[in-house]
């Protein structure tokens, strides 16, 4: 039996530009430590084989120190390591795949076509390829079929299945089904996918091991798997991220907004980055998003609170008053009825709140 680890899309040297400078620098340091943590995991869990499916760097020209740190960490693994560069960290002149001194246990695929590496002590063959530029419009799996030689054949590629556009290593289902591979280890898709069996080939994307923004939500990590002597593949997802990005929507209708938020929060959030969206109906003053954010900020690694509430319907009823307030509300109510999108209606609600506050000499902050 072979025990393997399948990871991808580390995106080392990502800027984390949405965070304050101190936190962004801390996250970059933590991302460089990812491979060291993986090395410890590999040693502790008896992993034989490590498959890394591209975009380990965020660009083809990362800091040299980042490449050297990754090489040192991979060298600590008591396992064979195979890497297929992707569209962000494509193989080319001056890339870290060419300039860094990679340890003996690490093999980097360098050609823009499938090539094979034998692992005779495991009766195993790894087939992989590299992006040679930021785009790869042709399938690197096209026309490939592993020989029926009694060996376990594994594919390692950066690409997407049935992608909307053929720019990043498109793979077709029929190609995977005809490949004869025991396992196809894939990268590029940052959201983990459940294992998919095409023909007799098991395919999977582990997603990225750390989220970098609110488009990469939830638990992140890698796949740990086994391949039996008969070629059967079993996969287990291993959560490994130090920080998670989460979006929480809280309806505050008829509630005190801060209390509603606190009631909706899970118990442990100190290491997470949260975006809380306040929804429902509120009074003229809104939900007090800024005050909630200030009050709860130290419960999170980072927090932003956004007010997406709408003005309560009974406030619009005051548009019938024979007053400046009524005239103001009638004008905005008519514009609101004519608005075509929810975003336009939200802007009108906000204008109403600030206008009413100005009429009443109140400060909304």
UniProtKB/TrEMBL annotation:
Residues 2-191 form the Calcineurin-like phosphoesterase domain. Keywords: Exonuclease, Hydrolase, Nuclease. GO terms for molecular function: exonuclease activity. It holds the Pfam family Metallophos. InterPro entries: Calcineurin-like_PHP (IPR004843), DNA_Repair-Maintenance_Comp (IPR050535), Metallo-depent_PP-like (IPR029052), Mre11_N (IPR041796). This is DNA repair exonuclease.
